Amino acid sequence: MISEFKSEYRFLSNFYPCNIELDGKLWTSTEHYYAAMKNSDPAYQEGVRNLSSPAQAKKAGQLVVIREDWEQVKQDVMLKALRAKFAPGSDLAVKLLATGYKILQEGNRWNDMYWGVCLNTGVGQNHLGKLLMQVRTELRGIHEDPDQF
Fold first, then answer.
1. What value, to the nearest 5°, has the Cα angle with vertex 96 and ends 62 and 29?
2. What residue spans define the domains of the chain?
3. Superfamily the domain 7-148 falls into
4. What is the DSSP string of 93-149?
């Protein structure tokens, strides 16, 4: 099991710097994209896209008026961002595939029990870890030599 997205597994974090193209625009982290999509206003989205760090993007996403359908679409938004981040053939896709069949757990100490598992209590739904494992499975299905991983 990979229980935290630190050190050699930091690349699994939404805060990991990466250039992804989504909706015809370049984003510098999956956190930027996810936070921007919390509101439908294109000006807000562009403002978040241009923030200098994932931490700033997350904070913006915590302060904005959330779109009405957010609870219904937030996992789809995250999955879209993760698929772009781990695009087939990319270096990050190779690294994700190299995690093999390990369980991916977004262990944290900030009590995020929706996307991860609180390491203080062991409680959490680990939706980020589950979506990463889904993307990894999808990559295995299109990889030229799935037995390699």
1. 30
2. 7-148
3. YbiA-like (1.10.357.40)
4. HHHHHTTTTPPB--EESS--TTTSEETTT-----HHHHHHHHHHHHHHHHSS-GGG-
Beta bridge partners of 21: 26
Tens-level pLDDT at each residue, the chain (149 residues)? 999 999 999 999 999 999 999 999 999 999 999 999 999 999 999 999 999 999 999 999 999 999 999 999 999 999 999 999 999 999 999 999 999 999 999 999 998 999 999 999 999 999 999 999 999 999 999 754 545 54
CA–CA distance, 30 with 34 (Å, rounded to integer):
6
| Tokens 């870890």, residue located | 129
